Amino acid sequence: MLSVYPACFFKEENGYSVIFPDLNDLATCGATLDEAMRMAVDCLAGYIHWCRRDGDPIPEPSPMDKIDVNTIARDLDPDSPVGEAFVNMVSVDAEAYAKEHFDKTVRKSLTIPAWLNDEAVRMGINFSQTLKEALLIKVQAQK
């Protein structure tokens, strides 16, 4: 399921800071705008993933037009002038992202015929990747 939240992007001396006002001012940053966006996706996915895992409530996102970057900036640091800033929606499928990035891997032992092992080794087949791909196909077919 896709989750979409507004984020405030603030241009800094050495990159961008990103704040999610709906998520207790959850923050991240990046040296470039592209990196800041990737970090925002990672940050949002992690927040949602851990809330779900811990059974914590996940706040509803505000409409983008209800987020005022100037107000957010003043709330965070009333003494600093607001420079270049904008609001952008950040979206992520937190469950899919977590499976790819957060969930740890486990080691499995398996038994296959020697001839199959020899042939696969000769062909340079990656056993872990092949098993993962086959299991994904099998699991998705069962849904």
Question: What does this entry show, briefly?
Answer:
The protein is α+β, with helices and mostly antiparallel strands and about 140 residues long.
CATH class of the largest domain: Alpha Beta
> End-to-end distance, in Å?
15 Å
Mean pLDDT, all residues:
90
Supply the number of helical segments: 5
Strand order of the largest sheet: 3-2-1-4
Question: Helices and strands in order, then pairings?
Answer:
Layout (H helix, E strand, L loop, with lengths): L1 E11 L2 E6 L5 E5 L2 H22 L14 H8 L8 E9 H8 L12 H10 L3 H16 L1
Antiparallel strand pairs: 1-2, 1-4, 2-3
Could you characterize the architecture of this molecule?
With 143 residues, the chain is α+β, with helices and mostly antiparallel strands. It is 45% helix and 22% strand. It has a four-stranded antiparallel beta sheet with strand order 3-2-1-4, sandwiched between helices. Helix 1 crosses helix 3. The protein is elongated and about 70 Å long. The mean pLDDT is 90.
What key attributes describe this structure?
alpha+beta; four-stranded antiparallel sheet; 5 helices; Double Stranded RNA Binding Domain; 2 domains; elongated; 143 residues; 22% strand; single chain
